[in-house]
TrEMBL record:
It catalyses: N-acetyl-L-glutamate 5-semialdehyde + phosphate + NADP(+) = N-acetyl-L-glutamyl 5-phosphate + NADPH + H(+). This is N-acetyl-gamma-glutamyl-phosphate reductase. It comes from the Bacteria. Catalyzes the NADPH-dependent reduction of N-acetyl-5-glutamyl phosphate to yield N-acetyl-L-glutamate 5-semialdehyde.
């Protein structure tokens, strides 16, 4: 059994990790880390865990945790993981960080977009960007994994085949993204109150969202050259789910069959990426509660652009599910262990 500790187990991403890990046959959760609920029963924070989890919440002492577990998930605000991690800890445990602390390789870019000083830049180079479909072999050997962001996961996987195969000009990419409110976390914020979100839709972070450089960096690796994009997220009145609609200019005339063959080349063997049938547009309801990303595309010969689409559950493939997928790779388990659940409906 792999012994697991979670720092931030009381947040939305941490709660989803608990739900998924309870269904993993090779995992024993030893430490439910919290800041505000220390000594309180975990199931009193999340009543869906009544009679399923008896443990009480513990603190966020990463050093003490490292003596008792094999892997630590940090599902905490930006900057916390970097402020806790050190060599002693990394000698004892593997770390999967769900925050953005180790996603961006250029520390000055991280500090600019996140507005905080990076407390452990010495580990940025070593950290592996945990997008399993692309970095699978590196993840297997990693001791520190940077779990990708939710919007970046959905955006990147939706366009990756077209960028990698040079079908589109990557610098013409425009990503229109929408997220449910759980993406903003459980902490109380006026913007996320029912009356603010319900019956409403709005853009936010326009021309300045912190996921922009993360998406650009990963697309840059795929394109083999620096990439600049426009990324506009929207908050929609749903609990879970991300939908992205991505526009880009085609470099040459292509047929549906040619582009479909490119998507199949990259995703035929990827269990969690489903390329939908012709003309079927991804919907968040068809992936909810699952680790799937549904993708598809449509060519617009009039404008010589291609429209690429993706849908994903922000808390699963966008956070906890992808983190478990990474853990499976790091510990030599079957990659889909604990993650084979079908999406819920309705
Ligand atoms: N929500 C999502 O869809 C996604 C989230 N993520 C990332 O996961 C991380 C957590 O996000 P999310 O679950 O939404 O956030 P929440 O606000 O729901 O949860 C934050 C968690 O961190 C804990 N925490 C907060 N401050 C501290 C601190 N100073 N020391 C220790 N623990 C602390 C909280 O503990 P307590 O409750 O006890 O105060 C809580 O458990 C973030 O980095 C986020 O970017 C990544 C992808 C998607
Ligand atoms: C709706 C909403 O607010 N979403 C969050 C993104 C989710 C998240 O926590 O970001 P990471 O994926 O980088 O961890 C935001 O826009 O900042």
């Amino acid at each position: 059994m792999v012994r697991v500790g979670i720092i931030g187990a009381t947040g939305y991403a941490g709660g989803e990790l608990v739900r998924l890990l309870l269904g993993h046959k090779d995992v024993d959760i030893k430490w439910y880390g919290s800041r505000s609920y220390v000594d309180q029963a975990y199931a009193s924070v999340y009543q869906n865990m009544f009679q399923l989890v008896d443990a009480k919440c513990l603190d966020d002492n990463m050093e003490a945790m490292a003596d008792q577990v094999d892997v630590i998930f940090t599902a905490t605000p930006q900057g916390l993981c970097a402020s806790l991690v050190n060599e002693e800890i990394l000698k004892k445990v593997k770390i999967i960080d769900l925050s953005a602390d180790f996603r961006i390789k250029d520390v000055s870019v991280y500090e600019k977009w996140y507005g905080i000083e990076h407390k452990a830049p010495q580990y940025i180079e070593e950290a592996v960007y945990g997008l399993c479909e692309v970095n699978r072999e590196k993840v297997k050997k990693a001791r520190l994994v940077a779990n990708p962001g939710c919007y970046p996961t959905c955006s990147f996987l939706s366009v990756y085949p077209c960028v990698k195969e040079g079908l589109i000009d990557p610098n013409t990419i425009i990503i229109d993204a929408k997220s449910g409110t759980s993406g903003a976390g459980r902490g109380a914020k006026v913007d996320n109150l029912f009356c603010e979100v319900n019956e409403n839709i709005k853009a936010y972070g326009v021309a300045g969202h912190r996921h922009t450089p993360e998406i650009e960096e990963q697309l840059g690796y795929a394109a083999g050259e620096p990439v600049l994009i426009n990324f506009t997220p929207h908050l929609v009145p749903m609990q879970r789910g991300i939908l992205v609609t991505v526009y880009a200019s085609l470099k040459k005339d292509v047929t549906y069959e040619e582009v479909k063959a490119v998507y199949d080349k990259y995703y035929n063997d990827e269990f969690f990426v489903r390329v939908l049938n012709k003309d079927v547009c991804p919907q968040t309801r068809w992936v909810e509660g699952s680790n799937f990303v549904d993708v598809n595309f449509k060519i617009d010969p009039r404008t010589k652009r291609i429209i690429m689409m993706g849908a994903m559950d922000n808390l699963v493939k966008g956070a906890a599910g992808q983190a478990v997928q990474n853990m499976n790779l790091m510990f030599g388990f079957e990659e889909a262990e604990g993650l084979r659940m079908a999406p819920v409906f309705p």
